[in-house]
Write a structure and sequence with these properties.
The chain has a five-stranded mixed beta sheet, with no helix packed on it. Strands 3-4-5 form a three-stranded mixed beta sheet, with helices on one face. Helix 1 packs antiparallel against helix 2. The protein has three helices and 15 strands. It is globular and about 60 Å long. By secondary structure, the protein is mainly beta.
Length: about 260
Amino acid sequence: VTQATEPSGPSPTAPATSSPAVPADLVPTYYLGDTPQGVRLYREFHVVTDPPADDLSAALAALTSTPADPDYRTAWPEGSFASATFADGVISVTLADTSLRDRPASMDEETARMAVQQVVFTVQAAVHQRAPVQFRSPDNPIDQVYGVPTAEPLANDNPNDVLSLVSLSDPAEGSLVTDTLQVSGVANSFEANVPWQILSGSDEVDHGFFMASGAMEPRLFPFEGSIDVSGLAPGTYTLRVQTDDPSGGEGGGPFEDTRTFVVG
């Protein structure tokens, strides 16, 4: 068992976790992912190779882009958004395609709700405020998006009811590692304990835990640490972090997030 180092400070994150701003070429973006409690939002720092003129434009571009982690997905096809502005304490998001007013037959109501919250959390992260979000058609507020009522500005839902309760920030998917795997993320886990495993295929080759900076409140808390991987043979591995689950799976099982990485 490898003991990870204790966290030394907060990881980069969006307003929901009260941490410092991220570098200009990284856009905090919320994507859909499956959990034992249904569809939730996972945060990924989307790399911007051709930065738009402002943070909100970058956020909208990221929302319609394919996430790096294959476990994530977006509900927003390319060309969904025309623009976004932040004025008088309200973020306005204008849809380019008003057919998005209606929920597709292939999308259930819960996924539709999460898709709308996907936008809310992402644009809030862009402006670093929990500001309400007004969805608009080109000229006026739009009464619904994917069948979710949006006539009035929307607040974000309770993070503990919408977000995955564990989400990795680092390492990036497919990272090349030599001796040390640097790990950071956010979680809301029992007694702030964040167990981790390293897997080779389905076989566990190492495990340990991180400690988040807090727990229980309606938000996620940063955790970080490093794992010595110098003893692993070259190859591809999976890091899996989870919430602690003292119930033994009675509530459906722990939340988890994974990243593949390569030991070179």
